[in-house]
Amino acid sequence: MAAAPGYGKTEMVRRRSRQARWCAGEAAADFIRTRRWAPQVVLDEPAVGEDELRDWLRRTPCDQVTLITRRPFEWEHAEQIGPAELALPEAAVVPEVYRETRGWPALAQRWPDHETYVLATVLPTLSAKARHLVTTFARLGPVRRALCVELGVDPAAIVELARLGVLVDGRLVPAVAEAVQPAGVNYQAAAHWYAHNGHPAAAARLHDRLGQHRSLAVLLQERGGEILRAEPRIFSKHPLLKERARALAAEHVERANELFTRARYQEALKHADLAVQLSADREARELRGKLDEFIWPER
Questions:
Q1: β-pairing, 40-44 with 64-68?
Q2: What is the 3-class SS of the chain, one letter each residue?
Q3: pLDDT at 56
Q4: What pLDDT does 235 receive?
Q5: Contact status, residue 262 vs residue 271, Cβ threshold 8 Å
Q6: Which of 35, 63, 92, 110 could form an S-S bond across to 114 if both were Cys, CB 3.0 to 4.6 Å?
Q7: b/e string for 45-59 if b means 16 or more Cβ within 10 A?
Q8: What's the rounded mean pLDDT across residues 220-243?
Q9: Measured between alpha carbons, how far apart are the two ends of the chain, in Å?
């Protein structure tokens, strides 16, 4: 079971392995080195190297071993449990919080006061190459291997971060990215790469950040529809997209009202949320508020 801190690894293992012997840290290392035995054993962050752990796993007589780790660890024929199984379901989290945390339990519980947890608890557990990727892409867009190479980031970090749930669907979890201060990023190179590799919204965001209004205007003129749908919160107020944003918002309001009358409330809420992001006019805000109160009355 591998995931970043705060995904609820320990809680899930305690529910699944109630009869197992539990060893953590140095105690787990001692269990391994003294070649002790138990029918079922849980090794919680054992203080041993990966090679030593692998050697023990090949020899152990234990019937079942559960490994809890904050680093990716692959073992042939083992059941792998990770962030996808541990994250909170979308329906269980307020949409805005889910969008920012992707269901990461500890971040969802702390949001919006999650920054200290990210900096003090999450980042220190990552490898140096993974931290480098996070600080490089904190204000960028999709993480791609070719762009990593372009920016001097080790692409191997993608596997680690995806396995731990810091990278979801090719992007850093927003709550993590927003808590981190970027360092030494070549935004111009990233904008050029995004623009020429099928990511116009990411390129537009960077042109805007760099104050390159002429390049931004050209990109919006050529790829405005794609950008509008991908990044409604960022570009809805730009003069070249304002009217288009209003029209698209009206479509989402209409769809949300239709779904509401059919009692499909969660789907309606998604459309209402998009309408507010695109054009925060009174009708969109009121609809979003009505649905929010209907679904989350305790808030």
A1: parallel
A2: CECCCCCCHHHHHHHHCCCCEEEECHHHHHHHHCCCCCCEEEEECCCCCHHHHHHHHHHCCCCEEEEEECCCCCCCCCCCCCHHHHCCCHHHCCHHHHHHHCCCHHHHHHCCCCHHHHHHHHHHHCCHHHHHHHHHHCCCCCCCHHHHHHHCCCCHHHHHHHHHCCEECCEECHHHHHHCCCCCCCHHHHHHHHHCCCCHHHHHHHHHHCCCHHHHHHHHHHHHHHHHHHCHHHHCCCCCCHHHHHHHHHHHHHHHHHHHHCCCHHHHHHHHHHHHHHCCCHHHHHHHHHHHHHHCCCC
A3: 94
A4: 60
A5: no
A6: 110
A7: bbebeeeebeebbee
A8: 70
A9: 33
Residue 172, strand partner residues: 167
Q: What is the mean pLDDT of residues 65-89?
A: 92
Chain position carrying tokens 């009358």: 261
Cβ atoms 9, 73 nearer than 8 A: no
pLDDT at 152: 96
Token output for 137: 């892409």
